[in-house]
Design brief:
There is one protein chain. By secondary structure, this protein is α/β, with parallel strands linked by helices. The protein has two domains: about 130 residues, Glutathione S-transferase Yfyf (Class Pi), Chain A, domain 2, CATH 1.20.1050; about 150 residues, Rossmann fold, CATH 3.40.50. About 40% of the residues lie in helices and about 10% in strands. It contains 13 helices and eight strands. Strands 2-1-3-4 form a four-stranded parallel beta sheet. Strand 7, helix 10 and strand 8 form a beta-alpha-beta unit. The longest helix has 18 residues. The chain starts with about 20 loop residues before the first strand and ends in a 5-residue tail after the last helix.
Length: about 300
Amino acid sequence: MQESNAFCDKGSVVTGTPEASLTYGYYPGCSAHATAQEYDASVKAVFGALGLKLVEIEDWNCCGASSAHNLSHNLSVGLPARNLALIEQSGLETVAPCAACYNRLRVAQEEIAAHPDEFGWLGEALGGPLQGNAVVRSPISIMVEDVGLERIAAHVKRPLMGLKVVSYYGCLLARPRSISELADTEHPYELDDIMRTLGAEPLTWSYAVDCCGGSLSISRSDVARRMTQTIVDAARATGAHAIITACPLCQTNLEMRQSGKGQAKMPALYFTEAMGLAFDLPDTDKWWKKHLVNPRPMLSKLGLVA
């Protein structure tokens, strides 16, 4: 099992293999320090294994997802705008692994560009006008467009043969269409391509971009539970062993709110966790222990872990 020297503290660099050639900014968002620590760790480990560098954006703040945009339009733009200013100062294309953060940053950028007069107050609040040249990307885009499937395949040491999955993007990576990096926002295929490259079998289904109800988790948990269960039932009907996602809110909601209905609950894996397993990286067990539905029993049954 190869060791990876991936790490990322504030302002530090994730160093990878000698093939390192690309450096990105890193906006972890609040979830990475709380409910999605396994996503944060797996993103850093996979980027490091591929020789990519991550530099965490200094002094970043919450993007306001799930709260600010329901309370104050100015706050919903102002919070991500401050992060956009920091990203501009860094001069780096920046990875936002959380789908909610990614969405809020890109939506705010689009709104500011479309309505400069409405947000003229931002210049004074931020100590200077935004230049509008911040580049915010999802890790899915980095893997498919910058790394490429061929390079991913070259790092696979433990093919995920026998693992059947459905790829779940949720709504925030696909909507609004104007901010999405997905080639087809109605029928995305990027995660399927990555899973296939890892040796897993991506299955066809109709719920890849449906909302899981994450934003209703507190205000209408009954609705969120119903929406989540519909997605899990559809995944189970395909014969999938797991749901693959890239959104902390979706991942938590899918594992927390599903009913087993007499069956073992279905795990929701971050796509970078699947990559880490296929790359035979250390610490995958530490990631799984943070799940509400531990995927180890399922992976063990398939012979993918001891």
